[in-house]
Amino acid sequence: MANFRDILNYFRPYWSLSIFSIAATSIYEVIDLVVPYGIGQILNVLSNQPLDKPLEGVIATISKLTNNPVNKPLELGVLLSLIFLVTVLKAPTQPWLTTWFHWDIALRARRDQNQKAIEKILTLPLEFYDENNPGRIAGRVARGVTNHTWSYPEISGQLIPKLFRVLGIFVFIWFVDWRVAVLYLISFVIILSFTLRKLQQLIWRENRLDKYMEDTESRTSEIISNIKTVKAFATEAKELQRQKRRLIRELRVIETRIHKGYVKLNTWQKTMIQFCVFTVLGLTLVETVKGQISLGHFVMTLTLSSMAYAELEPISVLAEVFARRYPSMMRFHEFLKVPIRVDGVGLLEERNIANNPYQFTGKVEFSHVSFGYQSERPVLEDINLLIEPYQTVALVGRSGSGKSTLVKLLLQYFEPQQGQILIDGQDIRSLDVGSYRRRLAIVHQEVDVFNGTLLDNLRYGKPDASFKQVQEACRISRLDEVIQHLPEGYYTVVGERGVRLSGGQRQRLGIARALVMEPDVLIFDEATSSLDYESERSIQLAMRSILGTRTTIIIAHRLSTVREADKIVVLDKGRIVEIGNHDELLRHKGIYRRLHSLQETGELVS
Ligand SMILES: Nc1ncnc2c1ncn2[C@@H]1O[C@H](COP(=O)(O)OP(=O)(O)OP(=O)(O)O)[C@@H](O)[C@H]1O
Question: Are 442 and 525 in contact (CB under 8 A)?
Fold first, then answer.
């Protein structure tokens, strides 16, 4: 669970600068108090009352040094100079020693934390993205970082220095009349502690609101990414209604639970403050009438206590704003604390692609491998499979039989609970994940296209690949046939802001991109499942020219893709139930034959 300490750690790298700027701001805030003090003393001079002892001492010293007698003009001159120093002279230095640093720290921390969030996004396990959609994650990061950035200057540049100012006022008043000071302190403690208690309750409500807001954002993001389905099913009105209901729920929480809470708190604070101001006025007046304090001290006490109570309002507002932001800050830290697993470790280290320490022949062995996403629900059980170098192995089986999971284990997205996976005789767990994965390449059913030129996309995994290598990969994958017809050839912009590629074209791009990596093991994950017959044939021809050049694993629903595999592995309910080549498995009269006949004739054979 995240807590307040995480917010402090957020700004920790800048602690020395932070202490300096907070101290500078606080000093400026306290120095300001010299103005009402000076005015009080001027009133004393004008009404022929004695000055405070320390001030008298200062004036006597100045009189000696300047050879001037102590008189009204000298006293007034010293007091005016003092006020001049803390007002006119402080003005040009204050913004540079305070505001500049507060924002500088906030913005530098913003850069650091955004970087941390990106690192987290890049290293989190894949299933995190199954459970949290992009809108939810992006919203959490953006709101978290923004709220930290805005809060820092408010807390360090205003809230803390204002508290010091209040403390300074207390000290000033204490020297004038300790009874007024005690009253002042008690009222402050009561008002602030009540405010903090109320804010704690409000934070709890804000947290609920934050969750609601994330749900709304998440659905909006889903609507955008699934807009084709929304339109095809004509569910625009339904989606709108659903979002409207969510927004109404948010508003209800804001108005009835949160906003009302803040207004109630504010009303209570204002009444208390006015009551205290009035009490201080009465008490000080009585003391002045009794002759216990001078006219100058009367004015100074009133001015100072009004200043102090006037600070209470911005202090409460700042605390309130912080409370409103606190839950989303906590959610950001909770996101940063999501544990990364085996596949995230060491991935962010820069690697010299050309000097990959690994080069495999491509011998892969699954030895007694068992795995379940939840340990009580096994998805793969006691898998034993040997894939020789340069062999082509097809994984087939009903949906949910565990084909993709087997590949995910090979890619080290997950670790088997039992057994081990070996490549060229080495346990893959003993290898550096990043360098190991670079020797493998996978072509998914949905090929991601990044915004940029086709060449950039082809070189995505290996930016230093020569143009010749890229051309060769495109020839094998038959992407060159597509490139011929593109307006700028390899330099055509594709992706978000460029030419849209069809499913088949994207597949060829995916294969070419994988081949550019020159992998030792190449995996096709249902690469042809969503293609029309012509595109499928074309991809099959591309795949055929790859077979035998490296270890190849093909996950396929369409059995036409796997006929030529050296070995076909049939999975059923997480177990290997048949192994053999196409002809052997047809003779075996098992699941493969049933699936084959279903696809060939549309009929099931027993
Ligand atoms: N991230 C996950 N968390 C929990 N269970 C999962 C996860 N991914 C897959 N499963 C479950 O594991 C089982 C095997 O899934 P897998 O995707 O490996 O099957 P498959 O044979 O590749 O299926 P298909 O051919 O439909 O892609 C299924 O029951 C699936 O629901």
Answer: yes
How many angstroms is it from 404 CA to the middle of ligand 1?
A: 7
> Do residues 524 and 553 lie in contact, with contact meaning Cβ atoms separated by under 8 Å?
yes
For residue 439, how far is its CA from the centre of ligand 1 (angstroms)? 25
Query: For the whole prediction, is pTM greater than 0.80?
Result: no
Structure tokens belonging to residue 517: 């990596």
Domain 356-439+548-606 has CATH 2.60.40.420: no
> Is the Cβ atom of 258 under 6 angstroms away from ligand 1?
no
Neighbours of 445 (CB within 10 A): 19
ipTM of the complex: 0.96
- How far is 344 from 589, CA to CA, in rounded Å? 43
User: CA-CA distance, 435 to 415, in Å (whole number)?
Assistant: 17
Query: With the C-alpha atoms ordered 446, 451, 453, 455, is the resulting torsion angle positive or negative?
Result: negative
* 298-334 pLDDT tens trace: 888 888 888 888 888 888 889 889 988 999 999 999 9
pLDDT-derived band at 606 (thresholds 50, 70, 90) equals: very low
Residue in this structure with the two tokens 């209901």, named with its chain if needed:
245
Three-class secondary structure of residue 272 per DSSP: helix
Residue range 4-339, CATH number: 1.20.1560.10
Positions of CATH 1.20.1560.10 in the chain: 4-339
**Residue spans in the chain of domains classed CATH 3.40.50.300:** 356-439+548-606
Asked whether residue 21 carries a pLDDT value surpassing 60, the answer given is: yes
Question: Can you tell me the distance from the alpha carbon of 306 to that of 308, in angstroms, rounded to the nearest whole number?
Answer: 5
Residue closest via CA to ligand 1's atom 3 equals 373
Copy the structure tokens of residue 164.
């010091």
- What SS3 class is residue 440? strand
